[in-house]
Amino acid sequence: LGYSAQMPVDSAPLLPAGEEGCHAVDVADEHHGGRAADQAKHVCSVGLGGCVANLVLAVLGAGQLVLPYALSQLGLGFGLVALLAFGVLSIHSCYTLSVYELHFRPDPPGGPPACIESYAELVTRVLGRLGSTVCAALLAMYAWGGALSFLVILKGELGSLTGLDGGLCLTAVATLFIFPLSSCKDLSALKPTAPLGCAAAIFITVVVLLSTRWSWEAPLGAAVCRGPAGSDAGGTGSLRWLPSSMTSLAASLPLLSFALNSSWAYIPILCTLKDRRPVRYASLIAGSNAVILANYVLIAAYGYGMFCEETEPNILDSL
User: Fold this and answer.
1) How far is Cα of residue 1 from the mean position of the Cα atoms in its chain?
2) Stretch among 2-11, 294-303, 309-318 having the lowest mean pLDDT
């Protein structure tokens, strides 16, 4: 967001077809200003696999833990259709952002092709400073709410793992790790850890699948509403296919939207992609959204299928 207050408002001209590559950014020199030199450090510096992992990690997180509960309110059939519909909207949003990002040439027109580094910067160029201010405020609220949800979950898990007060554990982790790392000006050194975070997020879904009582029963190929495998839980209600009320619908649909909001993270990740040809960014969009949707459908359907009406807002509490 740091560049948004300094960028000119006027929309920049688009590149002719076929000039979306990174070659000109890679050879940016001091004649094109400090920004080009700063961008050269990370623009086009990450392979396709790393970018997919980064985008998956940016989207997966606390939002996936509430998806089984969302399905308990929306119903299995309606909830899965709504989840897929939001996934299609996410794909379309990323594609639309790619069109502007990959055909963007900064001022002056004779300068080298570069990339827009944040969602707010793109909004500034397209909608002006007022749009950028509104966007920055919304992103701040979104990031604040997401960070709080992560920290609340982290507090509970640290207390459970250590047997100590969760608040003290969270304070120690925030002091020793979260604050120092988030205060770094350049986070590029942390890029190799992205696949680890992605694997950790997917592992939660693996735990849910391992806890499922697998069988040949329709509709999920698992015993429904009987709790996790190895437990003595009895019936946990019945499987619902449609929302129970308009209130449940209005309260649960935003949970799906929150879980699939990849637009704000997509722009800076696309900026780091090597060899930004159309087939590469299409692979980035398709690959990351395929992983995200597969993960969400599995954790939502089987998490809800295990506990039905007794599904907790955090699926880990149900397990």
Assistant:
1) 18
2) 2-11
CA dist 314 → 82, 102, 204, 288 (Å): 20, 39, 12, 24
Residue 46 forms beta bridges with which residues? 273
Residue 25 has pLDDT above 60, yes or no: no
Please give the Cα distance from 277 to 157 (Å, whole number).
42
Query: The pTM is what?
Result: 0.76
CA–CA separation, 127 vs 1, rounded Å? 15
Q: Write the pLDDT tens digit of every residue in 253-280.
A: 888 888 888 887 898 888 888 887 888 8
Residue type, 19: E
Residue pair 71/298 in contact (Cβ under 8 Å)? The answer is: no
Taking only the tens place, the pLDDT of each residue in 126-161 is: 778 787 788 778 878 877 877 787 788 788 888 888
